[in-house]
């Protein structure tokens, strides 16, 4: 439980974000009330976003309570291993900046399903719209609510559902009223708060342990030095050897960072192509931090517990006569035991930042997809006011569905593993049609349609079999490798069907694929360090060095 001053700080923060979100959204809408582009202003902030805001908003939408809670949990359980998800993201953000963003901006699309229609056909657009809404509800909102509920229940002693419902309603109000402008402005603030809180926790854990060397000594003493390794050998008990990371993560990462509406919507609102390129690269540099400020504190918590400096007895319970240890609450224990009174409120504010930014970003993307890709499909003459209204209703309904899913998702032992397990079965067909669509001239509309349908059906079937029969050969395949295998199947399906049903390019689709890998590097670029090619090379070099150091 936390003290009154910390409660006040947390409450003031929520009120501050609520007011800022409403003010920025309403102010922007008043300014643009009579410019005949109400929907564009609401859903895409009038396409006026600059690279710093895009980068911060991308990071804030990605980092939620799920990351703060589950990365600390993974650091406690597995060491630095799950940091691979953070650092590999830098490479997929480079792909977004160099190869995908130019087409998104050039085609002037409001949604990624819209892009698929321009590159392929209407059927592909319809399917991606459905999958995008489902994934936003399930992955971006429901899992974030679950992580936030676990923390708020432990800290405040209130019912998990009560706390997340209150926070969700507050976030939904300013998101629905203010649109993407409110989302991006609040996300930029929340990124700073979230990073500040995470840095405070990292310093507290490091100080309590007495530095790096004492932590390493504890790992040596317990025979757990492998917790410092991010690239594990074949047969590692985690199920994530180094080759699984390099084969499986791109399948998940390209869908998440390059083809998921919730994330890419910030890029779609960019002022121009250079801002759309540099924003993701800026986010790529920020993604270096999570290993040190989200995962590392969990590893310090493990060594602190082993050395008797962190009491983890509260995470133990008796189930069926046996003692069970649930590490989901490790971040909460660190807050209450390592952080002094007064600063706890800041840490809670950081947690709330992650929760609120994730919910707001997902709700805005759902609003956009439902309005543009579903409602307007059957009402092509719909006015902007109607689109905005439908988008607001969709946001409210999505929140209710997300809350209803919480009991089911809570059955996962690890929030982070549960999240990625679901993504591994959703992502492969989408990653396939986007990659081949952008890089292969012969990828046809018929092949894309059937790849999405068949690939998604196979993913659902395999996921179901894994849960019903976990001891079978399929059930034993780690989710990272499963993602790769499903992706290979999808590539075979699309390539085969592309030759069986040759592509028939439209005037528009013929401009939406690269004719050579070097073509995207010929676009106009800023001079100096702001050049997207220079930034990309610098980011690749830094990430390669980091992986070498923590191999």
Automatic annotation (TrEMBL):
Organism whose genome encodes this protein: Mucilaginibacter sabulilitoris
Protein name: Sodium:solute symporter
Topological type in the membrane: Multi-pass membrane protein
UniProt-listed NCBIfam families: sss
Subcellular location(s) per record: Membrane
Transmembrane regions listed in the UniProt entry: 6-26, 53-73, 85-105, 126-152, 164-185, 192-209, 240-258, 278-302, 330-352, 387-410, 422-440, 452-469, 481-501, 532-550
Alphabetically ordered keywords of this record: Membrane, Transmembrane, Transmembrane helix
InterPro entries xref list: Na/Glc_symporter_sf, Na/solute_symporter
Source species, domain of life: Bacteria
Cited PANTHER family: SODIUM_GLUCOSE COTRANSPORTER 4, SOLUTE CARRIER FAMILY 5
């Amino acid at each position: 439980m936390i003290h009154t001053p910390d409660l006040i700080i947390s409450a003031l923060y929520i009120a501050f974000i609520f007011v800022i979100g409403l003010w920025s959204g309403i102010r922007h809408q008043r300014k643009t009330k009579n410019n005949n582009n109400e929907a564009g202003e609401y859903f895409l902030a009038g396409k006026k976003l600059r690279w710093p805001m895009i980068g911060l908003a991308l990071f804030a939408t990605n980092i939620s309570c799920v990351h703060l809670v589950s990365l600390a949990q993974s650091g406690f359980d597995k060491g630095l291993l799950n940091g691979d998800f953070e650092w590999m993201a830098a490479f997929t953000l480079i792909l977004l900046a160099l190869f995908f963003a130019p087409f998104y901006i050039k085609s002037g699309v409001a949604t990624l399903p819209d892009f698929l229609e321009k590159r392929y056909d209407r059927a592909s657009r319809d399917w991606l719209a459905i999958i995008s809404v489902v994934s936003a509800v399930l992955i971006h909102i429901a899992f974030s609510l679950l992580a936030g509920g676990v923390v708020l229940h432990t800290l405040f002693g209130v019912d998990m559902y009560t706390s997340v419902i209150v926070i969700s309603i507050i976030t939904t109000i300013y998101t629905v009223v203010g649109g993407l402008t409110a989302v991006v402005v609040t996300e930029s603030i929340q990124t700073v708060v979230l990073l500040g809180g995470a840095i405070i926790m990292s310093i507290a854990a490091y100080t309590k342990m007495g530095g790096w060397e004492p932590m390493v000594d504890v790992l040596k003493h317990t025979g757990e030095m492998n917790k410092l390794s991010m690239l594990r050998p074949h047969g590692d008990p985690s199920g994530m050897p180094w080759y699984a990371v390099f084969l499986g993560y791109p399948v998940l990462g390209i869908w998440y960072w390059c083809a998921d509406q919730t994330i890419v919507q910030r890029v779609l609102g960019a002022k121009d192509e250079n801002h759309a390129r540099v924003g993701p690269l800026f986010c790529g540099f920020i993604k270096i931090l999570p290993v040190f400020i989200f995962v590392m504190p969990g590893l310090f918590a493990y060594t602190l517990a082993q050395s008797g400096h962190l009491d983890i007895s509260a995470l133990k319970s008796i189930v069926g006569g046996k003692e069970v240890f649930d590490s989901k609450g490790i971040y909460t224990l660190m807050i209450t035991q390592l952080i002094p009174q007064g600063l706890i409120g800041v840490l809670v504010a950081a947690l709330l930042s992650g929760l609120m930014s994730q919910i707001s970003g997902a709700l805005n993307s759902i609003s956009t997809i439902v309005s543009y890709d579903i409602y307007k499909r059957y009402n092509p003459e719909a006015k902007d006011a109607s689109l905005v209204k439908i988008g607001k209703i969709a946001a409210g309904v999505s929140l209710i569905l997300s809350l209803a899913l919480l009991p089911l998702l809570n059955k996962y032992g690890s929030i982070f593993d549960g999240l990625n397990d679901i993504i591994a079965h959703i992502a492969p067909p989408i990653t396939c049609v986007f990659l081949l669509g952008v890089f292969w001239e012969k990828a046809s509309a018929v092949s894309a349609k059937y790849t999405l349908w068949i690939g998604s059906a196979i993913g659902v079937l395999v996921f179901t079999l894994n849960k019903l029969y976990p001891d079978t050969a399929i059930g034993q395949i780690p989710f990272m490798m499963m993602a790769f295998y499903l992706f290979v199947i999808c590539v075979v399906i699309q390539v085969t069907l592309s030759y069986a049903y040759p592509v028939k390019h439209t005037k528009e689709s013929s401009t939406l694929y690269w004719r050579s890998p070097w073509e995207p590097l010929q676009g106009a670029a800023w001079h100096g360090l702001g050049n997207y090619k220079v930034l990309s090379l610098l980011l690749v070099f830094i990430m390669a060095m980091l992986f070498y150091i923590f191999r």
